[in-house]
Amino acid sequence: MIYEDNNRLYLRNASELLEVQAWGENSLRVRSSKYAEYTGRNNALTEKVATGNAVVTVDEGHHTGQITNGKLTAKIDAFKNLNFYNQKGDLLLKGYQRNRIDDMSAGENDEKVNHFNSALNIDSREFKAIPGGDFELKVRFDAAADEKLFGMGQYQQDFLNLKNAKLELAHRNSQASVPFVLSSKGYGMLWNNPAIGEVSFAKNLTEWHALSTKEMDYWITCGDTPSAIEEQYAAVTGKVPMMPDYAMGYWQCKLRYRTQDELLAAAHEFKDRNLPISVIVIDYFHWPKSGEYTFDKTYWPDPEKMIKELHEMGIKLMVSVWPTVDQTSSHYQEMKEQGYLVQTERGVPITMDFLGNNGFVDFTNPDAQTYLWQLLKKNYADKGVDLFWLDEAEPEYTVYDFDNYRYHNGTNLQIGNTYPVAYSKAIYDGQTEEGNKQVINLVRCAWAGSQKYGALVWSGDIDSSFQSLRNQLAIGLNMAIAGIPWWTTDIGGFHGGVDDNESFRELVTRWFEFATFCPVMRMHGDREPHTEPLSDIGGGKMPSGGATEPWAYGDKVYGIMRKYLNLRENLKDYIRVQMQAAHEKGTPVIRPLFYDFSADKAAWDVENQYMFGSDILVAPVLFEGAKQRDVYLPAGTTWVNVYTNESYAGGQQITVATPLAQLPVFVRQAAQASLAPAFTAITQ
Description:
With about 675 residues, this protein is an alpha+beta fold.
């Protein structure tokens, strides 16, 4: 039975109740459950938006119905299948239903003609009961052979178009599942379900799969351009704060500054060399033991004095914190008794084995959020620490047995993908309550909605190789489409770089150039050779990697890096405009060419270039030893090579030289006059 109630469209099909309602501009939210009522959780749909502007019609026999909200219409046919159309009547998404209907009398004439009668007995929505009450859920849609799909977050692969890909809906170190997908057909879909699972964008069907859940929940929108779709998505899930001015500059980090003196020496060296630097970072195990959330006084004797000295140089301080709590730390027993730690379903309650037996803070518990922030406030923020590095945010279980962990809000299988959102929210809420209105914190994982809590996501512990660099380009662009405008990488990769190796020096130079045109430009890495640990206790236990400062790779590389550091500084006014658009509309800072040039069919196929804001086209050098590369210039504007000042009509591919000091960059001719002074840093 199909019916309308409270401006919503419903399908009652035995124990299943399907609901479709308006949810924001040109958008619909779809829920289905076999429970008596919905959970009431909005998951990523946290923003207040219009939900009552739909037009709902149901036929007299209650066999069919439709709901229209702006440009988007959902229709339920007489065979209980759900399909979506835009304002032109174009089919955007069709439920994958393969079952036999012997009695076709209920359907309208066009439905009888168009229904594909099949003996396979496969429904578009499949709830499979799990003993104990919940369901394994599969939701299926017909696949379109010519469709291109983008977004979905961070997966370590070097292709942008996700058509024919299978993706795990789960977080791991260097993997962040952000389940929003944008289609070349003109729609976007958020899988608004934080359950562990997978999605297959296969040739024969698209299938979303949750291993354990109480209900189906997804949100769909349509628009005439990718930007319209992206802005409608940001409106329902949230937008980033305005990025602080300092964060648009260069961030210096390494694994790891071991002492207060080492950190200050590096900061002073930047100033002595007159190199721009905005943020310097203290990495992990500056603490005496995981879960103490404080500086080890042996190696960091006077943090307030150190931070004051940094601030006098105009440098902000970021400090790494982990959600791990050592079993022998002073807070462990209290946190365990209060239920502030992630629980295990079987075995001992240890979720990470790293320099001790550790539990993870359960950030889905609001009281645990408050408890942890109070420690960070007392031992870091009140001493002057400016921003936090929220590491291990997946969380990174020693064993990824997702079925073995339970949170305050439910089992890991049911709601585990919300963990990094809750982690970011805990620190964001604490900082905003202290009056900080421009929060930005580095975090190693995200889910839909993380952006509104000041999450600057980075791509985790990645390999130092050109293959990894190619991966990061695809990742950064798909994270942007997935609604995460603030994103960064470890320049040079994290694992395996050797400072005096010529191949690595080439790689780190190319990566540095690429990072100049990323939302945040941040150096990091576990370089070789390592130093020995300072001691066998506390913050001295961990070794340190080799140097990562720009002068660590020889004079030639240093000269190039110096130029790009100055370029980044010169571009701050331009970057500020792009960050304002991200803050106000959800506009990605970096994005694929099709985002700005959707009418150019060729732009949809370009996966190795991108736009940095509205006017700068970047073509990174992604292969070792490359002397030249092809660059596609999108149609609809004239482009200027920043090195030669040559102008080119859009809609063509050209070949450009790529000497080590030159990253191919083109600007729109209309913006050349305003941007040219910034580029003198690398062109003169």
